[in-house]
Known about the structure:
The complex is a heterotrimer. Helix content of chain B is 34%, strand content 25%. By secondary structure, chain B is of the alpha/beta class. Chain B folds into 2 domains: 1-87 and 173-253, Rossmann fold, CATH 3.40.50.300; 101-171, no CATH class. A 6-stranded mixed β-sheet of chain B has the order 6-7-8-3-9-10, with helices on both faces. The relative contact order of chain B is 0.18. Chain C is mostly helical. Chain C has one domain (43-341). The termini of chain C are far apart. The relative contact order of chain C is 0.17. Chain C has helices spanning 3-23, 27-38, 47-69, 78-93, 99-120, 126-146, 148-151, 176-198, 200-210, 212-217, 222-248, 258-271, 277-296, 301-315, 320-331. The longest helix of chain C has 27 residues, at 222-248. In chain C, helix 4 crosses helix 11.
Amino acid sequence: MSSILTVLFNGIAYGFLLFIMSVGLSVTLGMMNFVNLAQASFSMFGGYVMVTAMQSFGVPFLASLPIVFIVIGALSIVVERLIFRHFYNTDDLTQVLLTIGLVFMSIAIATYFWGGTYQRIDMPSWLTGQRAVLGLTLETYRIFLIAIGAAMAIILVLGLERTQLGAMVRACVDNRRVAGACGLNTDLIFALTFAIGGGLAGLGGALSANLLGLDPNFPLRYLVYLLIIVSVGGMGTISGTLIAGLALGIADVMGKYYFPQFGGFVIYVLTVACMLWRPHGLLGRQT
Amino acid sequence: MNDMVLETRAILETRDLHMAFGGLVIFDCMNFALRRGERHAIIGPNGAGKTTFVSLVTGLLKPKSGNVFLDGRIITNDTPQQRVKAGMVRTFQINSLFKALNPLESVVLALLERDNKARLSLRSVSAETELIDEAMALLTQFDLARDAYGLTEALPYGKQRLLEIVLAVALRPKLLLLDEPAAGLSTQQGHEVFSQLAHLSKDTAILFIEHDMNLVFRYADVVSVFAAGALVMQDTPENVRKSPRVREVYLGN
Amino acid sequence: MSALERLTSDHAKAATGYFALLARWNIWEVLFWLALAGMYFVPNVDLVLMSQIFIWGLFAMSLDILLGYRGIPSLGHAAFFGVGAYVAGYCGKFGWTEPISALVLAMAIAAIVGWLTGKLVQRVTGVGLLMVTLGLNLILYDLVHRSTDLTGGDDGLQGVTIAPVFGLFRFDIFGRTAFWYALIMAFLLFAVARAVVKSPFGLALLGARENPRRMIMLGAPVEGDVSRAFALGAALAGAAGALLTQTTQFVSPNTLSFQRSADVLVILIIGGTGRLYGGFVGALVFLILRDWLAAISPVYWYFWIGLLLVIVVSFFRKGLLPSVEALINRWKPSKAEEPSQRVPPA
């Protein structure tokens, strides 16, 4: 019994991690209909910024997290202003191709600056090891992940629902033209949303570095998962991304634990089935 | 209101057609009939359900209950393609043309589909000389011959509208359903379109939705008035024009 | 004949002439294939690389049928390539060593898989379609990768033997037979694809690409056509896969990988969709570039191909071949423009 719960717990931790990495993609996809596969690269760079901050500058773990968020958030804005905004009106495939090209370039850039081997992040001691929680022995780091993930989810949902900025973002997601006509500065809101989404992706990458392995091929490995979460959850919805992320995380971990010979297979079958049944995702809107 | 003459030689008939989107009822018990060779206009204010009716009849939408008959045969469960093959062809309110094909190619494609020749052989299209001739003749008839090789998108709007109709006429329909054929056209262009239609075979029934009353009263044999999902009146253009009910329907109380 | 009748007759003759002109092989096409064949005689030419170019070109062309002509994007096209590759592999392993018949069998089986895929994805479009095709590809890859007993897993299929072509031309280590075999097969299959695209079915594909609703209103079996397009694209991709197996006597799971699906998409986009030759042009550019760059800096070749993709997508969205053609047309306008190029295909 306890092993099921432990596996479930690990799956939830993984799920929250995936959620943090993909929520930015979901929002920009829902808001601007922009398929940004380079989101996976932002995650990777988040991990590398963390590594550099901690190893080259001696910044402690917790302090590095906001640094990663800000740096990658800024990077997102730069890329958005320079490149992405010229492609908002093009079709899905063009955006996929553009961002795949950027992913390829990012892999080479990462190799150039940090080399091709896996990077490790030195966790502070209070995050290592295990703790006894409710009769289960759980890894401390995963508890931490769940705590952060849940906090992120709550902040995002509350932020969207309760703040003025959130209302403006929702207006833009719903109908950009009308939002602009109502006097909202859609360009600024888009840039900000991109920044937050990118920052979150970077944060996710930093948090995942030890768990998922940080090397220049990270984007290619996780791109597929990001796509699955966003497609299955439905674009533009935070709760959809959360549910899909959790579902995927749990299914993946449990699948690999209980059916090691099938592992990832289950995810793909579920994804295909879901897309055929509900092409707009579980919680997506019928556009 | 069911002022309806049940004609045994009706080319198109609906019986007790009921359509709703979720909780919103569009039609409740729509009974409609159209005779062979008739030129029949449907008029009515916006939201009366005219385009929905055409979509139901052509099979793009499925009714909640009720039946549609084409030439006496029940077609309620037929696919849109089956209905086209049975002789029912429609045009759209907003031009629905092939951007990648020029007018000549578009008409040739329509003819290939009509004769079920589009999937048979690996020979180039140039081998279908009879169909190409027919396509050119159709384009000439509608005064589009000089535009045959140009970009469809580059055609002026009026000619695109004509091409829309040519694609339908090419299929030699028994029943032609035109959704606002003169939409977006000038008065003169509208009359040109309708005079072309008037030249079609007397066997082809034409059902058209129109807002331009001059066109309706000039070219229709029968006029049906739709309002709020019901057939309010069906009569000759003269009687419809004089009817106070119709004025009420358009102008309210 | 009255004046009107004469006019109509002239119009009609011109119209047939128009289609005939589109169907005729022009001088550039002939020169292209002759040039490819001529590469054999270039001193120090890398014959193995050339074979790869022919195979990838055929593979990219097969995706063009789906994407360029029917407008169906796929992130999982390598699935069909891999099916063909493994069928040819199993043939070679279990005694069916005659290459040409094995090639035909590989095509047939790939076609069936393609047809079934077409039936599955009929109602899906856009990102959902990309996801489903990707998902199916990944499922197949996973199955093949795991079933080490059946497929040898990552080590690949062992013991694949391919007999000499026509009993005469052995697949030698210099790649001489491979060169001609791949080139001739690619050419023959190209000719088939070309015929399809110029036939009435080609018109139907293009019509449905732009406006499926209108095709329905012409009575066209649009859904069946999707399956047919998939079957054709899959058969050609399967052929390319079989050619790879037969020329290398080896097949491994990376014939079905996402990497391969992404690569063939990149190749087609660089070369240009909707032009059949685009796949070959893209393969030439991509493979020669990769060969050259990998020799210089094996790790950073990704950067340049990524940059090339970004540049092509930004400035030459139609792809290199159509962009070059458009430039030539501006300088010296030709009478007939490929229908598939009138509107940006994808």
